[in-house]
Fold these 2 entries.
Entry 1:
Amino acid sequence: MLSYLLATLTFAGVYALLALGLNVIWGMAGMINLGLAGFFALGAYASALATVALGLPIIVGIVIAIAFAAAAGALLSRLTLNLRGDYLAIVTLGFSEVIRLIAANEIWLTNGSDGIPGIPGPLRGTLTPLEFNALSCALLFAAVGLAWWMTERLRRAPFGRALRAIRDDETAAAVAGKPVRRYKVQAFAIGAGLLGLAGAAYAHFTSYVAPDIFRPLLTIYIFLALTAGGTGNTSGAVIGAFFVILILEGSRFIEPLFHGLSGAQGAALREIIIGSSLILIMRIRPQGLLAERPPKSLRTQ
Amino acid sequence: MLKLNRRAFLSASAATLATPALLRAQSGAIKIGTLTPLTGVGGTYGPSMRDAILGVVAQVNEAGGILGRQIEVASEDTQTSPEAAVRAARKLIDVDGVSAILGTWASSITTAVAPLAWESKTMLMCVSGADSITKLPHQGFICRTQPNSILQIQVAGDFMVAEGATQMAWIGPQTPFAASSIDILEQIAAANGAGMESLIYEADKSTYRSEVDQILRGKPDFIMLGGYAADSTVLLRDIWQAGYEGKIIGPAYAVNAGLLDTLPSAVTEGIYTWEGAPAVNSAAYANVKAILGVDEVDPYSAQTYDHASLTILAMAAGGDSSGDTVRQNVRSISQGDGQIVESAVDGLAALAGGINYSGASGPCDFNEIGDITGTQFVFKTISGGKPSEYKRV
């Protein structure tokens, strides 16, 4: 049981990193990124290939993953600077499908749809599964803590204020002399870097990546996490991610309470529970569990 | 309007997390897990795969269980997603404490779950065909009842040559077995002086007109389909519309009853299918039919019936319910000179004298890396929208 809880918390940590990354891109700067799964995959594959094919240490793999995802984020946002709303959503969704198709078809690099098994994890094999899960959980929590601290500082800094201005009215921000284009690219790159970090963490924790993992459903879960937690609120992103995992995993334990369900009915019931919980939270707290409040600036503290 | 404050939210969360502890209280029973696709692409197969396992366990429990204990089944849904399946497998292993996970379907899911299985000494029995699965460092904790894709393609390629193919073609989506399928067919074609062309397409498209044009440019006289039911339905329609008059062969899981219902019989006339032959005349097969209440058992449910029977017999033979016991004994009860048995209950009765389990999916003999050997294949041909047996090898 403990091992399961630790593993679940580790997955929640991965989701929290994703939600924090999305919060910078969408919550703070207002750019819709439906390509989360693509950046997640980029980070996962970059770190997996660096450690498996090149034999580099895990920490180097993670740095490479962040750098790759951030560079891809900067490039993609530079190319789409003039797109907003639906159009940016379409391009980013397309980007994530392109990444998935490259992963499936460039067999020489990614091993195709077989995926890459045997990705090393920290001390995996020398620790028992329980100890490994405990270590992973601790490392993920440290990473989430660090990411939270950094993005929270970002949010309170003048940079964060400028991003909010861009989000709410880009033209007004430009008129006020804010370097809108540069800030948007920077915000996208920082967020994408966090998504890449999440991918690397996932790859090293589960030891396996394959194109099938990076389907758009994951993107939906993270959008739900951020909206449920509170868009634009850093703590809300983390809480929302834990909340989504709580619903995803908690619903497993409700199904056995209903006796006499067939396999398909039980699975459908679980999906109904997941869906209706998320609708309920949106209905009860449309602003999310933690609403975005204008932060105090760093200097006045 | 209802307010959900932070305290109410936290206490609700704590209550949900505490639920498993209540469910775990009923111990003493032996736990085995099913991890089949109940939703998603594999959702058409998963429910009956699970029911076949539940049926075997119910029969054994009725006959008194094993090792003086009853058997309990914990079921989870893979959602046909490796990410969800890993979380589900963690729950089966860590919360339910299962000693075997049975019935993983998609190859990527089996590969994702495999490390959890061997690290926690849990047996994993799957119906996935990718060659790479049994090459993982699984220490014997994986075995599969599905013939690997190399064997499947070799059998079908030989069939194509025997039926007079001079210019072969393979067309399918990117899957773990696409590249190896093409390699094998190229070898077979070269060895028999035939030509061979291949094309990999993107699944989930609504038309394959241009792909069909491209593959027909090589003037093939025998095409092998490499996809699943949904894309093969679209592809076959487009091949027919393009006026192709040569032969076509597709795996039976792709050219299945649903596809034959959807397409007019003119489109599917004369297509060959092939599959690992379930032992349709065996007592085991009849038992699965009775459990599921159907006339024809799909190959995956026949296999999971065997998974459950093998697991239970291996536990009984080893005198212990751990995953390691299943690993050590699965071969001693499934092959060799013992008495042939076709159900877990019969096997338990005859266990003392030595048994050789032979199941609904075939003889269930495994080699040292966990691949099935000795599978029979059946070729069928479609006529008037109905498959009929053509030949067995």
Entry 2:
Amino acid sequence: MTLLVTVFAAAITTAMWYKRQPDGSMKLGILSWMFWGASLMWLIDAIFEYAELGAAYFTPEPADMLNDLFLGLSVIALALIIWIVILLIWDPKGVIKAKLLKKKEQ
Amino acid sequence: MACFLVPMTEAIVTTIAQKVIESKEKKTGMKTVTSADGFTMEKTPFSKKLGWLNKMLWGGSALLAFEHVWHGEVVPYFPFLTAASDPADAAEMLHEMGTAGVAMAAIVTVVWIGMLLVSKSLEKRALKAIPEAK
């Protein structure tokens, strides 16, 4: 479930990145790379788990599914926080810089 | 248990490599390709392409580290990895790092190599398409 949630997040952010090109001011690429990296790593995790459990891997207990879904959503929240911090520090549109300079002038 | 440490280690190495290559590229200047009819295009520098791998490795291992915190395998106090406090668990952890961890780092690298090949062929195709577009 975590893998599935991350793959959806990766595909959606990649589509959003593509739509906004060539304007890269939102730094959506960072978010997209992050989700794809995590998806590939969780894919390996899933392969190893499948090798261990066999077909039972596809029929998880509802409680495990809910926990994995909760984890997947928390992972997305964390990735969004990392992305927003990078965006604000990088400040490609100079919004933060303009705000700070405005305050200085007062 | 601690499989994310393997791609994280690779991320450290590739980040250092990227910085070194980037400084070398700045010294040598931007590489350009010229088509048969004399049209010149700027090539995407290798350091930028290495940046794709860095972002996947750092992002992936950060999110995986969070998953390990979620499952109580990584803790904010010494020895930080719960498996490290017990020799039997430590052996299992090292085995997992050697199998799943290495496979995770390998798949990300293989996908990146695939992307390098695709981008190279796209660059070539774009260069060929220029005379037709004219």
